[in-house]
Amino acid sequence: MALDGWNINVGTAKSIVGKAQADVDLLEGKKTSLTTSFTEAAAACDHLEIGQALDGLLGDFLGPLLEAGHNAGNSICGNTVSTINAYESADGTMADDAESAIYAIPTPPSAKGDG
Amino acid sequence: MSVDISSLPDKLPDTGTIDTKAAAVRKVGTQSKDIRDDVQSDWSGLDAVFESPHQDRVFSAVTTVMSPYIDAVGTVTDDTATALEDFSSAISNLKSRYDAVKERASTHNALAGDDRPDDYWTTNGEIQREINAVAGLYDDAVKTCAGKISKLNPLFGDAAKTAGTVNGYSGHAQHALEALGLTASSLEFRNGKLFFKFNSDANDFKAKGMPGRFSIKEGTLRKLGVPNSYIERLADSQKATGPERVSKNAGKTMLHNLDPKTPLGALVAKYPWLKNTKFSVHGQKVELKVQLTRGSGSHQGGRHARTGPVKLPKALDKVNKFANGPAGKLLNVVGAGVTFAGTYTEGYNDSLLRNPDMSPAEHRTEAVKDAAVVTASEQVGTVVGTAVGRGVGAAVGQAIIPIPGVGAAVGGFVGGLAGGWLGGTVGNAIGSTINDIRHGDIGSVGEAVMDTGKKVLSSLNPFD
Question: Which of residues 187-246 of B touch A (CB under 8 A)?
Fold first, then answer.
């Protein structure tokens, strides 16, 4: 590839991202495990007040938190694959597409302006 | 008469089972972190095969984007497990006393009249005191455990959820409030509902440059759907000589009888608590009290409800508390904790307001969706979800709170809470903008949202 600053081993990079995506997908099962473990913990404590606290924590916060982690993983993998595909396409818009795909990767607030 | 054991639980929970289940909770967190570590390990392989001008952004993505959430899951599950294990330990420590006093009470209560020793009633008192002590310790253990778990939940409690609504908009709200000097004295929590209060004779705004006089823009009020009869009464209240007072009841009646096809009618139909607005005008003297939030449904007035003046700084501080809490310590490393908490809260409450018939699970899904949108957009951040609401809310706020500055600020504040509450009702532009946001096209609409909000505000502002 003749684009300055770009050099991607497409096959290997896609394989790496594919493996990462497969690992990210494992988080799906953890959502079920989280619900099951909280439900069983509530039953074991055998008290409404503790059960309500567990239910609230799971539904209000912890469940969405795990969901967000899963979504973040999917976002990273998906956007990186888009970057690689844009590079691979090597047409006139490659650079722009690759750039925009990279910038679609979320950046934490503290890193804003860094890149 | 015998000792009363009704304050004791029928049986104590099995501590072995609690410990097992606590370990299972913790395991979800550790396994999630293991998965994250595997992803990180996979990802490190890109270093050798991926070169681009912005490669560091790619290489660090797992650490900076995904890890904060997974680390927080690990921390919160670990803290939850610890709370459960502490409960188990407390129950274990109590078990011998519990068993002993139950057996003693059973034996004591079984004694027939002739078999009772002379010190029967003395013993009766001793056993009852021990029963009460054991029951108290059990209750303390339960409350301690539930309290520890609830403290991990930034949205805990019905009132906290309402306060959480404020939290989600702390940035926007704070700016608006500070600019106008709106303080806790203008807000009130009662029965789980948040109210805004205003009195033209005594308020925070007089010292902040609030215009001394206002006049009514009849055309704009008509455009919003305010009935002519009410507009005429407002006009009469402004007459130089012999102005007639427009009573709170008149305003309430007006709000209850609006045509739902009009913008204001659609608003109060969708958010009926706004009908509880109490508003009186007599010349330049204005008094009003607006119910800003629905409250907490059937739980209002419950044990979590707050009464009395709201401590706004405290409410706004909750985000900081979250950031400084166990979850926030990790999340805050990259500054994502507040963003997530705010956005999730915002999304949850948005969904509550927009889709009142949805189940809690569906609201959570919507909230996660909103949080994911924000997470995936660096350009717009948390602003986008509220920009429409603030713009439209400001306009409507001016209709319900027709005081220059105050109406816009409070309306914008409420609009922020509702987050696009008018949807497609007030102009297709707003509706389509919301749809753009919902479809994820947020990178390009940020500025448009702000512009549209300003245009709507400008066109609907009923007062000069």
Answer: none
Q: Give residue-wise pLDDT tens across range B219-275.
A: 667 766 788 888 888 888 877 777 788 888 888 888 888 887 776 776 676 667 777
Q: Is the ipTM of this complex over 0.95?
A: no
Domain presence at residue A114: no
| pTM of the full structure | 0.50
Q: Please list, in sequence order, all residues whose beta carbon lies within 8 angstroms of the beta carbon of residue B408, skipping any fewer than 6 positions away.
A: B394, B395, B397, B398, B457, B461
Residues of chain B in contact with residue A105, where contact means CB-CB under 8 angstroms, are 57-58, 61, 65
Between the two ends of chain B, the Cα-to-Cα distance in Å is 78
Residue type, position B181, single letter = G
**Which residue in A4, A27, A45 has the most chain B C-beta atoms within 10 A of its own C-beta, making it the best mutation to test that interface?**
A45
Q: What is the number of helices (H) and of strands (E) in chain B?
A: 20, 5
Structural domain includes residue A1: no
The 10s digit of each residue's pLDDT in B307-325 is: 222 232 232 233 333 333 3
* Inter-CA distances, B257 with B230, B260, B271, B354, Å: 11, 9, 14, 22
Counted domains in chain A = 1
Residues B25, A41: C-beta atoms closer than 8 Å = yes
Q: Which chain A residues touch B78 with a CB distance below 8 Å?
A: none
